[in-house]
Amino acid sequence: MAAPAEEPPKKKQRNYRRDKPWDNPDIDHWKLEEWKDEYSPGAFVEESSFATLFPKYREKYIREAWPIVTRALGKCGVACELNLIEGSMTVRTTRKTSDPYIILKARDLIKLLARSIPVAQALKILDDGMHCDVIKIGGLVRNRDRFVRRRQRLVGPDGQTLKALELLTECYVLVQGNTVAAMGSIKGLKAVRKVVEDCMKNVHPIYNIKILMIKRELAKDPALANEDWSRFLPKFASKNVPTKKPLKVREKKPYTPFPPPQPPSKIDLQIASGEYFAPEVAKQQGAKDDAKRAANELPPPPSDAKPKKKRERPHKRKKDQSVVDVEQSEVSADELAAKIRERAGVEAPKPESKKKKRKREQREAVERAAAEAAAAALTTEPPPPLPSALLSPEDKAAKPKKHVSWSPDVVEPRPGLAVPHGRGPAFKAAQKAAKRVAKLQKQKQKLAKKAKKKKKKSKR
């Protein structure tokens, strides 16, 4: 037969304490039991109520979601009221309420609804294992721009930092305005509050997230459950980043308790120079002399300064500059085309690309060469004879050939010059170039006639 287990010795202060029914090692004191109505059969003596305000932009959503809130709180025996005139939500206990703590849960529910949390997520606060915390971050940073940057740092790019924080703490976190609302366990809410407050104190959330990841891995090892984890956690040293130095460093003057001497006034200077006692005529002459001296001391105007334009008078207006005088000045083909296009009301062509420009230049070069070749081939003058000193004795003895005029059937090509024939592309290009030149000449003549007509009208 096994010997009975020895009872541990009782402490002195517990010698006269009676045993309670819950003094049992088999009972888990941290376990949250579900509330039953039989625990509190009677009604409450006093009525408890809580109210909270909500912003104007949440009014439409709360009005649409209020039937869902009323239905969920009605099951718990809590009455709720929505006042759109004052912009407030109120919850209160009724005679059907049995759970004394449910009114605090209802208070947290309306608080979360006012902080832009969706109603489906906010209703989870009515569960026993769910708690909430609303962290106020508006007063932690004075500078508004700095506050916005640090709040965005907490959210992270595409909400990645906030998502990592939610996964590590097993909490729901929402950053809205000047507050951060969190829902989860007590342990997770403490971690969320630390990360948020450190972020507002210019500590990047990634450092705390790294520490939470290490703690999560250490918690999986039962051998390290009761040990100190500080030796495993990283220690981040703060860096003092030097600020920019001012451009101008003012030299500190030695401190003197006496104020600086008062500068002399204009009358004091006149008395010192004796001008104050001079007659009025002498004073006026002295003022004129000072003005002349100041004018002579002025620096000369810079040579680069542009001369002032004279105001154009209506009876001495210049000739109409839009009329081009072809006889006085030569106009290029591009300028002429632009003038014609402007008068006709036709839009300018789009700027051509580099490839098109290169092709056009090659084509124009070919046409120019062809035009020169055609002009050289069409000439009827014979080539100039070489001087007798340069001729060989055989060339002198040979009879000089008679020059034959050019005909379309017989062409005598010069050495090194390609003469176009009637069917080749070079000949056609030469024809086109000749036509283009003739067309431009006609346009010049027309413009010259119009200009003459306008001159005659203006003279009349």
UniProtKB/TrEMBL annotation:
Residues 130-220 form the KRR1 small subunit processome component second KH domain. Residues 307-319, 433-460 have a biased composition (Basic residues). It is found in: Nucleus, Nucleolus. Residues 323-335, 371-380 have a biased composition (Low complexity). Keywords: Nucleus, Ribonucleoprotein, Ribosome biogenesis, RNA-binding, rRNA processing. Pfam families: KH_KRR1_1st, KH_KRR1_2nd. InterPro entries: KH_dom_type_1_sf, KRR1-like_KH1, KRR1-like_KH1_euk, KRR1-like_KH2, KRR1-like_KH2_euk, rRNA_assembly_KRR1. Residues 16-25, 286-295, 336-352, 361-370 have a biased composition (Basic and acidic residues). One of its GO terms (cellular component) is small-subunit processome. One of its GO terms (biological process) is rRNA processing. The keyword RNA-binding applies. Residues 1-25, 244-268, 282-460 are annotated as: Disordered. Residues 48-128 form the KRR1 small subunit processome component first KH domain. Gene3D superfamilies: K Homology domain, type 1 (3.30.1370.10). Belongs to the KRR1 family. This is KRR-R motif-containing protein 1.
